[in-house]
């Protein structure tokens, strides 16, 4: 695999950033991606408080300087006063992909009625796909399982690396014309 795959992981949490608890969200995202992807990949992780300028700065750095093809955030998507991750994400994106938030909420509602409280969204900045997940560590697998089948083809469309998945973890879907012949 010659593609250089870098993936940004951003934990947005006042309490984890103050050291009041250990961040479980970032490591859970990394573990999920390790199981799902067959590509070699490098995680670029950041932990920031719920401050819009700091979340925007982290997303821009991971997209523009670190050249992450995918950036996954966790936390700060709810209705509380300090929850601003979706606003920060929308502010740095060129395009919004409404289907991701719709699908993650629909699937999460099968687990918890409060899934409706998450304003999680996704969008494109340059050659990066940004996806918000809720802060609850258990929400990470619920949401990534729900949308990841569409992520590799989305990254093809924005001229990123060709991501491949383990079928037993998550089955990526690509239209026939977009599939690379097996080596
Ligand atoms: N990064 C994290 N690591 C471990 N547990 C977390 C993390 N983020 C949230 N949680 C837990 O998930 C639950 C919901 O969190 P809440 O919505 O208050 O988080 P948040 O607003 O994303 O984070 P914070 O309140 O620290 O800014 C809480 O029980 C919290 O302990
Ligand atoms: N799959 C899943 N989605 C979920 C949850 C959950 O436990 N599992 N928690 C909900 C709750 S209680 C809230 S308040 C919102 C926003 O959480 P956040 O502010 O931590 O991002 O996500 C919701 N989405």
From TrEMBL:
SMART domains, per database record:
MoCF_biosynth
As for family, the record states: Belongs to the MoaB/Mog family.
Q: What is this protein called?
A: Molybdopterin adenylyltransferase
InterPro entries per UniProt = MoaB/Mog-like_dom_sf, MoaB/Mog_dom, MoCF_biosynth_CS, MPT_Adenylyltrnsfr/MoaC-Rel
Q: What is the lineage of its organism?
A: Bacteria, Pseudomonadati, Pseudomonadota, Gammaproteobacteria, Thiohalomonadales
Q: Name one Pfam family in it.
A: MoCF_biosynth
- State the EC number(s): 2.7.7.75
Pathway(s) annotated for this protein in UniProt? Cofactor biosynthesis; molybdopterin biosynthesis
State what this protein does.
Catalyzes the adenylation of molybdopterin as part of the biosynthesis of the molybdenum-cofactor.
The main enzyme category here is transferase
The cross-references to PANTHER family, in alphabetical order and at most eight, read: MOLYBDENUM COFACTOR BIOSYNTHESIS, MOLYBDOPTERIN MOLYBDOTRANSFERASE
What GO terms are given for molecular function?
ATP binding; molybdopterin adenylyltransferase activity
| Entry coiled-coil feature ranges | none
Q: Where is the MoaB/Mog domain?
A: 8-154
Q: Which PROSITE patterns match?
A: MOCF_BIOSYNTHESIS_1
Task: Could you list this entry's UniProt keywords, alphabetically sorted.
Answer: ATP-binding, Molybdenum cofactor biosynthesis, Nucleotide-binding, Nucleotidyltransferase, Transferase
Could you tell me the Gene Ontology terms of the biological process aspect for this record?
Mo-molybdopterin cofactor biosynthetic process
Please give the catalytic activity noted in the UniProt record: molybdopterin + ATP + H(+) = adenylyl-molybdopterin + diphosphate
């Amino acid at each position: 695999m010659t593609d250089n795959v870098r993936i940004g992981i951003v934990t947005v949490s006042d309490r984890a950033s103050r050291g009041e608890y250990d961040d479980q969200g970032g490591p859970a995202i990394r573990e999920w991606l390790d199981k799902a992807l067959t590509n070699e990949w490098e995680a670029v992780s950041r932990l920031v408080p719920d401050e819009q300028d700091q979340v925007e700065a982290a997303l821009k750095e991971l997209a523009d300087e670190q050249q992450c093809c995918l950036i996954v955030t966790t936390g700060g998507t709810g209705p509380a006063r300090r929850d601003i991750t979706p606003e920060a994400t929308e502010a740095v994106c060129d395009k919004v992909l409404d289907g991701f938030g719709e699908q993650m909420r629909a699937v999460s509602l099968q687990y918890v009625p409060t899934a409706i409280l998450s304003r999680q969204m996704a969008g494109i900045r340059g050659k990066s796909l940004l996806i918000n997940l809720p802060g609850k560590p258990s929400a990470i697998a619920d949401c990534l399982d729900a949308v990841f089948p569409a992520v590799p083809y989305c990254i093809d469309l924005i001229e990123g690396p060709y991501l491949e998945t383990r079928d037993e973890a998550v089955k990526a879907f690509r239209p026939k014309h977009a599939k690379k012949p097996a080596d």
